[in-house]
């Protein structure tokens, strides 16, 4: 393999946002195709460099080929879409049925989520995994937030032990997910953003309002929020084009965050408002980037 072909394939590989197994197989197939095309041109009288140049030119630019491949591979099946949306439906069911008050039920859901995440992580990170990852990380993040409400003196001690470990876990998973595709990172983080905004908007004067009272009061809103996330996840998995995926997350998250903000507007201070704006920017910027025309 010549250096020029190796560079072409390496650039193409870097542009692909598909799972590693499919990426390696795709690169091998393209390499074989280009080598065969180049060989035919050389047999027609061209030198190796010119034959390879024409073969890659006919095949297409790195950006256009990567976009076409991603559109084919990034559209999940209906089964994958439903399974990716399943954790959102489960959480909505917990609120509607009031099983969120049952510790045993919550523990079983957490164990099931952990098992699904371990299975998916060990099986090449399929597209349905990432919403489950968000709920897997949720207890880690929520626990860290609740540490600030410990009695004075215990907060710093708990933070010194817990926060570094939690940050390591979150950073590792986010990094691995982003290496696959940063859109999947957004898919993973959306439920965390929703819960985080809800927690921060449900506080007054630095004190959390009674959790049970807040859940009782906002049960339908919270259940509806997670149903919206489920529908957006289905749209995300089934979409072919990346900007469709980004817009699906943007619209759903915006509706949820604004509804939470309106419901708890009396409790939202500067900190919670800032977090709300930053959360929306996290979603708006990627969606805008995907709307930019791709070179063909």
Write up this protein.
With 296 residues, the chain is an all-alpha fold. The chain folds into 2 domains: 3-72, no CATH class; 77-291, no CATH class. 80% of the residues lie in helices and 1% in strands. The protein has 13 helices and 2 strands. It has helices at 3-15, 20-43, 48-59, 62-73, 78-97, 103-122, 129-146, 154-180, 182-201, 211-217, 219-238, 242-263, 270-291, and strands at residues 203-204, 207-208. A two-stranded antiparallel sheet has the order 1-2. A hairpin with a 2-residue loop joins strand 1 (203-204) and strand 2 (207-208). Helix 12 packs antiparallel against helix 13. Mean pLDDT is 77; it is low at 204-209.
Note the topology.
Elements: H1 3-15, H2 20-43, H3 48-59, H4 62-73, H5 78-97, H6 103-122, H7 129-146, H8 154-180, H9 182-201, E1 203-204, E2 207-208, H10 211-217, H11 219-238, H12 242-263, H13 270-291
Antiparallel strand pairs: 1-2
Helix pairs in contact: 1-2, 1-4, 2-3, 5-7, 5-11, 6-7, 7-8, 7-9, 8-9, 9-11, 9-12, 9-13, 11-12, 12-13
């Amino acid at each position: 393999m010549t250096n020029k072909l190796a560079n072409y394939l390496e650039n193409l590989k870097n542009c692909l946002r598909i799972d590693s197994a499919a990426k390696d197989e795709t690169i091998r197939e393209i390499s074989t195709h280009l080598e065969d095309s180049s060989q035919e041109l050389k047999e027609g009288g061209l030198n190796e460099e010119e034959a390879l140049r024409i073969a890659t030119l006919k095949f297409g630019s790195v950006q256009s080929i990567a976009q076409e491949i991603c559109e084919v591979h990034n559209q999940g099946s209906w089964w994958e879409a439903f399974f990716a949306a399943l954790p959102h439906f489960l959480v909505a069911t917990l609120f509607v049925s009031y099983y969120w008050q049952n510790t045993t039920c919550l523990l079983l859901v957490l164990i099931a989520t952990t098992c699904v995440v371990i299975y998916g992580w060990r099986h090449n990170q399929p597209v349905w995994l990432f919403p489950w990852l968000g709920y897997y990380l949720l207890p880690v993040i929520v626990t860290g937030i609740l540490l600030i409400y410990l009695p004075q003196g215990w907060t710093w001690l708990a933070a010194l032990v817990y926060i570094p470990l939690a940050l390591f876990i979150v950073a590792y998973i986010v990094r691995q997910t982003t290496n696959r595709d940063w859109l999947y990172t957004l898919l993973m983080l959306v439920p965390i953003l929703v819960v985080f905004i809800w927690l921060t908007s449900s506080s007054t004067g630095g004190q959390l309002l009674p959790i049970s009272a807040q859940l009782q009061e906002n049960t339908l809103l919270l259940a509806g929020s997670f149903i919206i996330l489920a529908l957006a996840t289905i749209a995300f998995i089934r979409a072919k084009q990346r900007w469709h995926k980004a817009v699906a997350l943007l619209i759903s998250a915006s509706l949820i965050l604004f509804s939470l903000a309106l419901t708890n507007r009396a409790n939202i201070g500067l900190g919670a408002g800032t977090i709300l704006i930053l959360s929306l920017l996290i979603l708006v910027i990627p969606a805008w980037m995907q709307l930019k025309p791709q070179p063909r």
